[in-house]
């Protein structure tokens, strides 16, 4: 008998990550993954099946309707996996607002609610919606679910989520939401399995990738985060500025006469490490560059991260553990070293050898704060949430 399969879709601005999972036990098991890059006219599909990897070129541009492109992707995937065995598909959706507090069945009604939140995430929400519609067009029989980046942070207090603006706007939904929730949920679970004594305490997880944020967690629950109303907030990122004095925006829009569209493009695509260095938004390239601008970009990045650790420690009332995750956090010892060098006042003590080897524990025995490196897996989290909703439909609670 062929095992049932589950697909996950993690749609970004210029690519989509696809996970292929076998469902024959309590936990979905990944058996393949693919990345569709539609940033240019030459759309490509990178597929990994076990140890084998394939690079395929797909004809056609992405356009507003992804159905044609995804039809090609499905046909390519079908040469390696039995897509007739796929029973469900889970999607990462950036914004759930105050509407969703967990994963949901993507019915016509819930998709309409997801669409109603587009104004809160104008660059991210449409991508997920396009993917949902494309999959529905190709496989209308497929059970689809949505997993939200914001729902993990629903445990934050109203005070933490509030901005110091007139109350009426808060009531209309202009508040701090927090993002990267799927990553934080996965890493918090992994920490509980690997270091339960630390996971039950006060922990900060640093999700450091091209998009980056930090989250303060207590007893596995989100208490505060660096990102707020939008994914522009918090620490500097590859091309996004992080925290920015709102007076700067007024200056851009007023005296400098820039349009909203120009400012939006600058904030999302031309700021952060790229903006400061004028060279690249990739920390690996900046670390290899001897220019003053490259050094300043890295110094600013690590300074702001260390500062945010301090702020979040204040929210928690202490700190037991600091966990690094995502592309930079998992793989770049030099960035971790520069951050922890600025946290000596917290009693942080880094084990240089363990750090260089990207070990699970990179703190010394004498360190008052446990330092860990844990790989994140958003697709695994999407798959698990999708399966829970799917099985909940098959076996509703009585």
TrEMBL record:
Which N-terminal stretch is annotated as signal sequence?
A: none
Record pathway: Metabolic intermediate biosynthesis; acetyl-CoA biosynthesis; acetyl-CoA from acetate: step 1/2
GO CC terms on record? cytosol
Q: Which InterPro entries match?
A: Ac/propionate_kinase (IPR004372), Aliphatic_acid_kin_short-chain (IPR000890), Aliphatic_acid_kinase_CS (IPR023865), ATPase_NBD (IPR043129)
Cofactor stoichiometry and binding remark: Mg(2+). Can also accept Mn(2+).
Q: Which EC numbers does the record give?
A: 2.7.2.1
Do you know which PROSITE patterns this protein is assigned to? ACETATE_KINASE_2
- Primary enzyme class: transferase
The superkingdom listed in its UniProt entry is Bacteria
Reactions catalysed: acetate + ATP = acetyl phosphate + ADP
Q: Which residues bind substrate?
A: 92
Q: Name one GO biological process term.
A: acetate metabolic process
Which terms does the record give in the GO molecular function aspect?
acetate kinase activity; ATP binding; magnesium ion binding
From the record, give the transmembrane residue ranges: none
Provide the binding site for Mg(2+): 10, 378
Provide the binding site for ATP.
Answer: 17, 207-211, 282-284, 327-331
Subunit and partners: Homodimer.
Describe the task this protein carries out: Catalyzes the formation of acetyl phosphate from acetate and ATP. Can also catalyze the reverse reaction.
Q: Which family does it belong to?
A: Belongs to the acetokinase family.
Q: Which NCBIfam families match?
A: ackA, PRK07058.1
This one is known as Acetate kinase
Gene name linked to the record: ackA
